[in-house]
Design brief:
By secondary structure, the chain is of the alpha+beta class. The chain folds into two domains: about 60 residues, Nuclear Transport Factor 2, Chain: A (Roll), CATH 3.10.450.90; about 80 residues, Roll (Archaeosine Trna-guanine Transglycosylase, Chain: A, domain 4), CATH 2.30.130. It is built from four helices and ten strands, in the order H-E-E-E-E-H-E-H-E-E-E-E-H-E. The strands form two sheets. The chain has a six-stranded mixed sheet with strand order 6-10-9-8-5-7. Strand 3 and strand 4 form a beta hairpin. The longest helix has 13 residues. The chain is elongated and about 45 Å long. It starts with a helix and ends in an 8-residue tail after the last strand. The C terminus is likely disordered.
Length: about 160
Amino acid sequence: MDAKGRFIATLDVLFGKGVSEHLPLHDLRFAYSKRTGKVKYVMLNDRILCTFRSDGGIALSIELARLLIHNPRFMDSCIVVSNDVAEYVAEGRSVFCKHIKYVGSNVHVNSEVAVLDEDRNVIAVGKAVLPSSIIKYMRYGVAVKIRDCIGRDRVNK
């Protein structure tokens, strides 16, 4: 399977069949590891969309989440927070259960999730700490640990 096929298959498995329909597949570039020869990054216009992990998963970026949000199936892998705390989440703070307005059915422990504000704008991406079945009923505790957000300075120092 070529890199593009593997990328599409991984997206379909992790976020739902057909979520890659709105991606500009012909413009994607793949960066390979010099040591292993495996795909390391997927890029679009010199911006990293995602990183392949050694366990077969991907590390979602804000840019990829913004592209995937156009597909309704991707909402099953998203969490919507209230606008009261969206500002703090956009700065990189963790998402607590009591601030969640909607949680998708495809949110599991350690799964990649996109965090949206109530206007459905992507404000952060991270890793779920709890499954959706528990997040719906919990009123305390961390639900998502944020890895990347729109408010952080994105330049590596």
